[in-house]
Amino acid sequence: MKINLPGLLIEKLPSGNLRYRVRVEKQASKRIILTVTPEHPQFMEVYLAARVGIKIEPEATAEERAIRGSVGWLAAKHIAALEQDVKSGAASPLTLKKRKQVMKVLTERYADYSLAMPTSKVIELRDEFSATPAWADSIVEGIRSMYRWAAERELSDVNPAAGIRRIDQGKGGAVPWTADDLRKYRNKFPAGTTQHLALTIFMFTACRIGDAILLGRQHETMIEGVRAISWKPRKKGSAPVTIPMLPPLYKATRAVEHTSKTYLANSKGEPFATPDSLGQMFRRWCRDAGLENRSAHGIRKAAGHLLAQEGCSQYQIMTIHGHTSAKTSEIYTKGVERWKMARDAMAMLEHMNW
After folding, report:
1. Which residue has the higher pLDDT, 213 or 58?
2. For a disulfide at 213, which of 87, 92, 94, 272, Cβ 3.0-4.6 Å?
């Protein structure tokens, strides 16, 4: 193979084999022997590393292949640490998946930048994806989180993503389901179907999709003569949840027959492998029912709003949703409580002598 790259030296050895060496940029007297030939799939990585003075093995980790002190190096360290957190149960696989997507976008553009990359580059990256504002904001948040992680470990004293505003002014995340949405879905998928069971689980437990793929009869218990369902949410920082198992949920879990240890099973009768696999399937079911832009998380939000409308306090909603901060549950009660206060206040004026 004929190859001509800056600084690449090709030498024929007495054995007849070729040896490849690279002159380090700005250090003409320093040469690094390459451990692979041009036919190797990682040849360019090894060559480019040698040009900046780094010798790497072809099977080196992403961190070892990256330039130390670069954005790519930090991203590789961050992902490696997050993978360990997933193995230990300290982080969710879904978080890892999303963070890998963010790091891929970041390193494709700025891998060789210094850790102290300018904030303007992060803004450029955000604006590049402005057509999908939620994803653009997720990229910025992922970068911001990586730098927070780095600061805690004294790897970086800057955070170029700090203070960058969101561009998704939106829509408040997932769309809460309405009573008509629920009715439309149940008309399409009657009791006894997996689709109906999924909706019932989301509605009567308000669980996240990452917990829905795990829930089963092993989570049922009796407390003071009342059948309850109890689980520890997978999301980091969530509180354990124990709630009564209402008749609609109990009936739905018994109406579907399969051998899986979980309530929900895929077409093969096995538990869903990942939250994403159930999420994609559930969105397909929603579309089949004529419901666009609906998701499982929208049911969780709907449950929160219904609980608030029925008079539940934010602390009661906390226990059902597994929140550990009252502020998180306040989003469901704030509007309802303000309306009740306004209604009571106006009632005091109703019989005023005017």
Report:
1. 213
2. 272
